[in-house]
């Protein structure tokens, strides 16, 4: 019975040991768990504390860049040509958009996007900072904006920014002069010329937009915002307002520019209208044109290919880049050279039978039956080739080149537009270096009438005839009238700039001007039937620039086989003759004849402008 008496003691002892062992195990497990937790807290707060502190700060307080409003562009009379409109740009913040695949799938419902392109942009951005927005699409439109805004809680990390977007009010009007914007590239960013620009920003790529980008761009601002867990702004804490760009006032007259564009419709060519007393460009048009608004959100590769592959070269500003033989408009240079060198005077005459024999070659006059006996005035009025063949033979290439270059040909005018061509005035040395062949005597005859190697731009001819019109002063052509702040304070006011003087005496210039007036007013003048106006006294010179031989051109006309064989048409003129206010240079590619192909365009512009000047003049009351 003894064992039974101690059984309860034994049972109690066994049960107590088991309890102690179990309690000890639980305590060890608790200590291990707390140890793991403590070590994790140590890692997060001490070792990685700085990293997660920055992440937490960035997750609630962020700095956002605010783009400035680009300056406006006006014509000389204050007509608004280029403005800005609100654009809704769609971006994604990768670290806020998780799960990112689901967010993108939902986004596709409201905005059509290319899946692969989005991932490419996001992956590239992740190499930098995941909290920086990645632009997905510009200018999504108000309908997409409304849809995304209504479902914003389903789209974490999706951000819509309202940015100013360029709007060319009269799309394609003055496209070559005003230009367009495009996204800044890596080389431009590295150049240091765009201090406040970042990747994705737009800069001027062409025309006025490029020439005055520094003034138009403005300075970006910023704001500090608080965001929620989805990356959506809940409060703006502080703002530094951006500085808007300055406004540009051009020398261009919008009404005259519109006429120029209308006159060039369905034609290939260029028109330049200039104030001969200052160099102000009143109109500058090139045809065909292109849509500036197509470039705002990025032009597609197909659109760009169509533009650059178009044989009529719509992306070229033919007024400043196009190079053409000046044809008979160049005869004023030959006349100036011959008169100044004393080779002829007002009374010197030559007989034109319709051709000129030089060695074994016959050089034809444009008038097959000939002009008969002509002096320098008659030769200009009737554009007699034979008279100027004689002058070319007497002057020679180098003397003629000396006068041409001092008349501003063969070099850039200095207008503040990109890619201006300098033209070409040949010399004997130039040909030898270029071709390895010596200059031939017969070539003197060709260049004397503006053919051969001679190449000029419509702008150069406007500057030259402007100098003839004003008495011999060559003004630098200008497209800028003034630059103003948004408050109207002047930042810059353009002043006329003299770039040269014609190498001509008053007596010589008077003879040349007399001949140019006769071109329009004389019954034998080449522009009489197309340019003469009873109200306004117009002077000028026609030109018909051959692009192939006369025989090839005639055969083409007879068979109607190739329009590209037709001559280019020139007319350069000014008015009023005695106190000129406007000079107009017109070039129509394959326009056949200067008188009929270019003359009516110049007349329309001159008459319209002078009438507007009369209408705008103040009324003087009689006492």
List keywords for this structure.
five-stranded antiparallel beta sheet, Penicillin-binding protein 2a (Domain 2), Beta-lactamase, 623 residues, elongated, 23 helices, disordered C terminus, seven-stranded mixed beta sheet, 2 domains, single chain, alpha+beta, 39% helix
Describe the structure.
The chain has 623 residues and is α+β, with helices and mostly antiparallel strands. The protein has two domains: 62-250, Penicillin-binding protein 2a (Domain 2); 254-300 and 318-485 and 492-616, DD-peptidase/beta-lactamase superfamily (Beta-lactamase, 3-Layer(aba) Sandwich), CATH 3.40.710.10. It is built from 23 helices and 23 strands. The strands form seven sheets. Strands 2, 3, 4, 5, 10, 18 and 19 form a seven-stranded mixed sheet that branches. A five-stranded antiparallel sheet has the order 12-11-23-22-21, with helices on both faces. A three-stranded antiparallel sheet has the order 1-8-9, with no helix packed on it. A hairpin with a 2-residue loop joins β14 (355-358) and β15. The chain is elongated.
